Amino acid sequence: MALGFRFSEYVPPQEDKPNFDSLLKIFMQLVTVTSGDVAEALSWLSSLDKQYKLTGDDYGIGDFIEDLKKQGYLDEDPQRQGSFQLSAKSEQGIRKSALEEIFGKLKKSGKGNHATPHTGTGDEATTDRREYRFGDTLEQISMTDSIRNAQINHGLGDFRLTEQDLEVNETEHKSQSSTVLMIDISHSMILYGEDRITPAKKVAMALAELVKQKYPKDTLDVIVFGNDAWQIEIKDLPYLEVGPYHTNTVAGLELAMDILRKRKTANKQIFMITDGKPTCLKEGIHYYKNSFGLDRKVVNKTLNLAAQCRRIKVPITTFMIASDPYLQQFVEEFTKVNNGQAYYSSLKGLGHLVFRDYRRNRKKTF
């Protein structure tokens, strides 16, 4: 019997009817791109519906908006009658959506989940066993294993329990970590037709949700830097916008160091997402700016701060979303001075690099 193939026209599977969850995923993406502008996001959603027929006769965009209100995703805007703003539930939903998009779905884990190389009297018991050491507590001794050892070592007829028979349940120290995430909001983040700020926001939101779910004892502070640097709340990340700014990396690093000095944890680090070179300094009330090439006055002050971070054992991981060779040369010099790490990433791969490095760094003791 001859074997062959029969071809027919592919008909994509159709949902029986549009549902709230599928539209919500699209809405979460759109409201991130529009920096939290609900009206603009819904306008875009309506345009997409018109073009791609996202809804049907039984469930339209109007129904979806009503469901958003009923389920607590939208609040009335007190400044504009008849308008809506994102609720706290939406802000958390956007962070979860970013986490799932970038890093996949995570199961909630216990607190203090960063392993260190240290063992002994730690925070959590493991399945490992070891010999008794002076200072081990009675609660750490595995009685079943110790009695078995005594029977093997001395025989059933001469049962006695000696120090050499004792086995101890090994425990692990679980470290806490303090991280400052720096996000470049200079004008170059939207230049040349590339939207680099939206992926940066998604990474920040996903990292915040990762810390909340998996490492609840950790701290994560987010700062933005343009001509100046300032701290923002995690709940404000969806609303982050690029400004007509230069790149004052020095101000960002100074603020990050100030924040980390106040943290009592032993493990501290800085993540910096940027697409450009430092181009700005603040001198008193005036700004020194130079967007042409690498200005040594600006670069040297930036490198001095990188060295200061190294001296206080704060590694800096730089995620450069640009491919210019002279910018990579600067980042390599910056990284060498700090003894940190650097990644040159496409926008698509940025999130995976951040999370991979976050988890690896948490396993160190700096």
Q: Which structural category fits the helices and strands?
A: alpha/beta
- Report the span from N to C terminus: 69 Å
Give the overall silhouette. globular
- What ranges have pLDDT less than 50 throughout 5 or more consecutive residues? 105-124
Query: Radius of gyration over alpha carbons?
Result: 27 Å
The strands making up the biggest β-sheet line up spatially as 7-6-5-8-11-12
**Can you tell me the CATH topology of the largest domain?**
Rossmann fold
What is the total domain count? 3
**SS element count, helices:** 10
Write a structural description.
By secondary structure, the protein is an alpha/beta fold. It folds into three domains: 20-86; 123-174, no CATH class; 176-361, Rossmann fold (3-Layer(aba) Sandwich). Helices cover 38% and strands 21% of the residues. It is built from ten helices and twelve strands. The protein has helices spanning 20-33, 38-52, 61-70, 88-103, 143-154, 197-214, 249-261, 296-311, 325-338, 350-361; strands at 74-76, 84-86, 114-131, 167-175, 177-184, 219-225, 229-232, 267-274, 280-283, 286-289, 316-320, 341-344. The strands form four sheets. The protein has a six-stranded mixed β-sheet with strand order 7-6-5-8-11-12, sandwiched between helices. It has a two-stranded antiparallel sheet with strand order 1-2. α1 packs across α2 (38-52), α6 runs parallel beside α10 (350-361) and α8 (296-311) packs parallel to α9. The radius of gyration is 27 Å and the shape is globular. It starts with 19 loop residues before the first helix and ends in a 5-residue tail after the last helix. 33% of the residues are buried.
